[in-house]
Amino acid sequence: MEICKSCACLNMSAEENENLLTNEDNNDERNYDTFYSDQSKTEKQPKQETRYEDPNLTSDLATIMHLVKGNIGTGLLGLPWAIQHAGILLGPILVVIMAIICTHCMQLLVKNSKFYSRRLKVRALDYPSVMYHAAENSNVDLIRNNPNFFRQLVNAFLLITQLGFCCVYFVFIAQNVRQVVMTWWPGAPSDRVFMAFTLIPIILLSFIRHLKVLAWFSATANIATAASLGIIFYYVFPGLTQNEMPPLVNSEIPTFFGTAIFAFEGIGVVLPLENQMKNPQNFRYILPLGMGLVSSMYLLVGVTGYIKYGEDICGSITLNLQSGQG
Question: pLDDT-derived band of residue 262, with 50, 70 and 90 as boundaries?
Fold first, then answer.
């Protein structure tokens, strides 16, 4: 979200930027066809294959699967604990507001990327490039004179956020796999050993360069996520209406934000997804649809989990399921 806001704020004045991006967005489909047909005829550049002819580009359905998987992670399991710190009424309202802001910032990021891609006559721009050109057109002299600094700043932000997410995933996977293995092998090695084994398939997946190939992995992951949610709801829903209603509002709002913002972790996949779509003009519809599905799952898990376990809710709802069975 910080990256999106920075790119949007640095681009000329607010009113001028909004007008330019709106006008560009209204002509997306016509501009895509015109740009790529003109680009192939330019003498200064070699003839390139258009987005629509590249066999490695992704379909709309694959893009939705990537978007959903890119946003749903371990943060989903901590949402009941987050809502506990805001209240059963205020918590869901804040989640909806955060989802709207996050989706809006993603749309601004994509609009800026399209705007500068057409201006520079290139097929696509990555995060640092969007920030660089946004800084170049800023009204603030300090920003306009140092675009390379802001390019590297975005790279640093991306590195920190993705490294943080991956560290959490390694710990989460290792701990849960070890928990299952200990059922049959009480003397199983420590979590660090399972982290080392987890590193091998992760490295192999990192060599896959095309999202079209990764679509099968995203589909499998989404099926596993749906199955996991089904198991959670199997234990949460029985007797849910018999529980006492938790407090409507709690005062630990900073703790709520710190946990809830972690759940909205899909900012790093927005531009790569849009850049590798067969029909990128459809991304304006896919983004709100995908984020709507993600936000709905967040609300359902967060609200039902908190109502079920109340003040006894743990940092991850799976820990309550385990204690409930033990």
Answer: confident
226: left (phi over 0), alpha (psi -120 to 50) or beta: alpha
pLDDT for 260 equals 87
- What is the C-alpha separation between 40 and 35, in angstroms, rounded? 9
Q: What are phi and psi of 279, to 5 degrees?
A: -125, 80
Of 9-13, 128-132, 282-286, least confident by mean pLDDT is 9-13
Q: Is there a contact between 304 and 240 (Cβ–Cβ < 8 Å)?
A: yes
SS3 58: strand
* Cα(148)–Cα(129) distance, integer angstroms: 9
Q: Say if CB 86 and CB 249 are below 8 A apart.
A: yes
Distance from C-alpha of 287 to C-alpha of 67, rounded to nearest angstrom:
8
Contacts of 51 (CB under 8 A, 6+ apart): 32, 36, 57, 123, 277, 278, 280
H helix runs in the chain, sequence order: 2-10, 14-26, 28-41, 60-71, 79-84, 90-120, 127-136, 141-144, 147-181, 191-206, 211-236, 253-263, 270-275, 283-309, 317-325
Cα separations (Å) of 12 from 18, 21, 215? 10, 11, 37
Q: Could you give phi then psi for residue 277, rounded to 5 degrees?
A: -90, 145
Query: What is this structure's pTM?
Result: 0.72
Distance CA 313, CA 256 (A): 14
Dist. CA 170–CA 80, nearest whole Å: 22
Q: SS3 of 316, please?
A: coil
Tokens of 146: 């140092």
φ/ψ (deg, to 5) at 58:
-100, 155
42, 220 contact by CB (below 8 A): no
